[in-house]
Design a protein that fits this description.
The chain is mainly α. Helices cover about 60% and strands about 5% of the residues. The model has no long low-confidence stretch (mean pLDDT about 90).
Length: about 450
């Protein structure tokens, strides 16, 4: 029975069941930045890998009918009194992606993203175009392909990682992560590839044998894909957590073979899109960077404010929905934290325990902090005017979802482990709490939008 109800199989069932419902129930454009992600994907499907710079914006010429579609659903965003209906959704089927009339659509905030960010959505659009040109059908098919992609990578990650399987399942199925991955977003690819990459790293740490050439190729390929997904090269440095002895001879050559292709890929892509960079929200990256260097204490104070702000970011990463205006009751958040903690030290009797040297624990912790600082700094450079720091506005929890598994791993390594034959009850409780929580998510979305 335990072989049938493995964490990876339970994940697939929950992700597909609730993910498909979320894809269908959530109206168009009610996922963060979904309009801009949709426009960017349409642009790539039309063959424009690099966006067009026009005046003080970046975008592309797309079907004029997207304006009609936008007017129908964009007004719901941040307007809690505005709702839609099944009738409205059915009527929107008549809005076609007609290329005969085109308008210029701006998507400066997603123009720099590489096509890798939209692999599943592009596949979904191309598949749907074989049967229809309805905009909402193209969007919905892109959402479903995104969910399928996320589910496959999540399954592989849980199956790959030798420990922390239930913790990985918890992270993959947070309401925010599942909603975003059931929608039209670039975060799906980053999160899916990132968690699988870190799972491979833990597998290599745990393995009794040395890393094979095949595993080096896998890590290198995933590192390239992660780097091209929202410029996330620093996350690939977690490969340094793997003990040196696991690489055998030619350690540095093997490390370089993993990281150099990824670094090269992000440099090449950055050079390709440098001419279409558009500062957003009065941002001035060079001036902001100079301000940070001249006011380091002030900036570090903002980044590492008291625990309360950190809890807000974690809360957003777990329980916030829509454009940060919807949430499930806060007690679910605390239930999630309790489940995280218990699943980090309560393990089955036959489950092996991962151990790392103090040196490697330090590297893991340092890389988590480095990635946190890098993500935060990149957001401030991109969105905030020089000298202006707005942590609750610029730093959103979903931007740090990728770091949840590494942080969870630190907790796992530091806490003492309790081996018990009754760990399955903890797992059953985890599944039960997740299902109840996701049903609550569906209820909140239906009450909000219909």
């Amino acid at each position: 029975m335990e072989k049938i109800f493995t964490p990876e199989k339970i994940f697939v069932f929950i992700a597909l069941f609730f993910g498909l419902l979320l894809s269908l129930i959530t109206p168009p454009y009610q996922i963060p930045d979904e309009p801009q992600h949709l426009y960017r994907a349409f642009s790539i499907v039309n063959g424009n890998i690099i966006a067009i710079k026009k005046d003080n914006t970046a975008g592309d010429y797309l079907s004029a009918n997207l304006d009609i579609f936008h007017e129908k659903f964009a007004s719901i965003v941040h307007n809690l009194d505005k709702k839609t209906s099944v009738k409205d959704l059915k009527q929107s089927l008549e809005i076609k992606y007609d290329k005969s009339r085109k308008l210029f659509y701006s998507f400066s905030n997603t123009a720099l993203y590489s096509p890798v960010c939209y692999l599943p959505q592009i596949a979904g659009i191309l598949t749907a175009k074989l049967f229809t040109t309805s905009v909402i059908s193209l969007l919905l098919c892109g959402r479903i392909f995104s969910l399928l992609f996320y589910t496959i990578l999540g399954y592989l990650a849980i199956k790959t990682i030798p420990v922390l399987k239930w913790g990985t399942l918890l992270i993959l199925l947070t309401p925010m992560n599942l909603i975003v991955s059931s929608g039209f977003s670039a975060d799906t690819v980053l999160l899916g590839f990132g968690i699988l990459y870190f799972a491979k790293i833990i597998q290599c740490c745990f393995s009794d044998s040395q890393i094979s050439t095949k595993e080096i190729i896998w890590l290198s390929a995933l590192a390239v894909l992660i780097s091209l997904a929202k410029q996330s090269f620093l996350f690939t440095l977690f490969v340094f957590v793997i003990p040196k002895k696991k690489f055998g001879a030619k350690y540095f050559l093997k490390i370089i073979s993993i990281l150099l292709p990824a670094l090269s890929a992000i440099i090449i892509w950055s050079l390709m899109v440098k001419n279409i960079y558009i500062p957003l929200n009065n941002a001035d990256a060079p001036a902001q960077l100079q301000y940070i260097f001249t006011h380091p204490v002030e900036y570090l104070t903002v980044l590492f404010k008291p625990t309360y702000d950190s809890l807000i970011i974690l809360y957003e990463a777990i329980c916030i929905m829509g454009w940060l205006e919807l949430s499930i009751p806060k007690y679910y958040y605390f239930i999630y934290i309790v489940l995280f903690v218990f699943n980090s030290f309560v393990v089955s009797k036959d489950e092996p325990v991962l151990k790392l040297s103090t040196h490697k624990k330090f590297i893991l912790t340092a890389l988590c902090i480095l990635n946190y600082i890098a993500i935060s700094t990149l957001l401030y450079l991109s969105w905030a005017a020089p000298g202006e720091f707005y942590p609750t506005m610029v730093l959103q929890g979903r931007y740090f979802a990728l770091l949840m598994l590494p942080v969870f791993s630190i907790m796992y390594l530091l806490l003492p482990h309790i081996k018990t034959s009754k760990a399955r009850y903890m797992h059953l409780t985890t599944v039960f709490a997740l299902v109840i929580m996701l049903f609550e998510v569906l209820r909140v979305l239906i009450m909000r939008f219909y």
